[in-house]
Specification:
Length: about 400
């Protein structure tokens, strides 16, 4: 196994818990260095500090797997995935749909494992994890005995690691429709074509924030996807819910999910561009008691931040104009590069521009099955803010 001796600054950062080493922090590697090869890391005196895997083609060249000198084999992955699952069961006893492994936050960088009842969906994001796919699948089979394991290796970063972007069933048989229970509600999901791995598991706990906000009210759910927010709004007593999304396929699922839970008479879904719809409804004088904004990420790279700020401000500003006094805005950003502080500034600027006074009801992040590694801020990305309009 290759050994890299790190300078004092980088070694200290690793010892303090940071899991990455960047390409410019390593010695020059041979052109034929095998992507994903295991390496040992040492301090300036040659003392062992960690084991990781290395891909010199990646900007993040080393991702740390262990801070002990141990074998990275089938037993290692079985132990790590079992430990990650045990953590979830502390909070989700009886639940069958949750994120089992969240990459660096579970000390398995480059690996996502989601459980949807009897199905498991994995994402293998890096060359280092790709090398251990066989051990990962064996661990999953041993722990969960799934009906099928689906690979959603359709993340663009895989191409940067030198691997194909693909979706496929790795083992077993996928038998649609796949229906899961979440917060006592039934949702049909698409494991091969749906966004993320089929469902927004990271919002699972935030859906419950609608209780007390929507009873007897009219709700507009934008970027509604397959109806997660809409169906929860109906469950918590909304009189009428309109869901808007650009995808007809997602809307078909949303309609089936509303009907599956007995809410088809209160939930209506329409295809459309959310920005255009909000502008048009302002001209029509429409008003709502609660508006939900849960858009896809507007910021993929740090250099896009200013354009994203304009997009977030516009969409929130237009939503604020459509809220009745006393109404609620539930607004989200899943962009890591947009900090919580900057997001709050955007909301305050939008409120000033439309002459509305807003009260912060709650500020939340991702669910507990998407834990945050304190030494790696990149593992915290979701902002979910609930505001109340106090004046027109």
């Amino acid at each position: 196994m290759e050994s890299f001796r790190l300078n004092k600054t980088i070694a200290t950062r690793v010892v303090q818990g940071h899991p990455w080493i960047y390409r410019n922090e390593l010695p020059k590697l041979p052109l034929d260095f095998p992507p994903g090869e295991l390496v040992e890391l040492a301090d300036p005196k040659g003392r062992f500090i960690a084991i990781g895997y290395c891909n010199p083609k990646s900007v993040i060249s080393v991702r740390i797997l262990s801070r002990e000198r141990e074998k990275i084999d089938g037993d290692f992955f079985l132990r790590k995935i079992a430990g990650a699952d045990a953590y979830r069961k502390r909070f989700y006893a009886g639940e069958e749909s949750y994120r089992v492994v969240y990459s660096e936050a579970d000390l398995l960088p480059g690996l996502i494992v989601d459980r949807y009842g009897s199905y498991i969906v994995i994402q293998v994001l890096t060359a280092g994890m790709e090398r251990h796919t066989e051990s990962i699948l064996a661990a999953i089979e041993s722990l969960f005995s799934p009906q099928a394991i689906v690979a959603r290796n359709d993340i663009p970063s895989r191409a940067l690691e030198g691997f194909p972007v693909e979706r496929k069933v790795l083992s077993g048989k996928l038998e649609p429709p796949v229906v899961i229970l979440k917060n006592g509600l039934a949702f049909e999901i698409d494991l091969l074509e749906g966004q993320k791995t089929g469902f927004f598991l990271d919002q699972s706990e935030n859906y419950l924030q609608l209780e007390g906000l929507v009873a007897g009210g009219e709700v507009l759910d934008t970027f509604c996807y397959t109806g997660g927010w809409s169906v929860h709004a109906a469950r918590f007593g909304a009189k009428a819910v309109i869901g808007i999304d650009a995808s007809e396929g997602a809307l078909d699922l949303a309609r089936r999910n509303a009907a599956r839970n007995g809410f088809e008479s209160r939930c209506r879904f329409e295809a459309g561009n959310v920005f255009d719809l909000l502008k048009a409804q302002e001209g029509e004088g429409r008003e709502y008691d609660c508006i939900i904004l849960d858009p896809p990420s507007f910021v993929k790279r740090r250099k896009e931040i200013e354009n994203a700020v304009r997009g977030y401000k516009e969409i929130n500003l237009r939503a604020m104009k459509l809220l009745r006094p006393g109404g609620f805005l539930l607004t989200c950003s899943c962009s890591y590069h947009l900090s919580e502080g900057r997001f709050r500034e955007i909301l305050l600027d939008a409120a000033r521009d439309v002459g509305r006074t807003l009260r912060l009801v709650t500020l939340r992040s991702q669910a507990k099955d998407h834990p945050v590694l304190l030494s790696l801020p990149e593992t915290e990305y979701l902002k979910c803010i609930v505001l109340q309009v106090l004046s027109p």
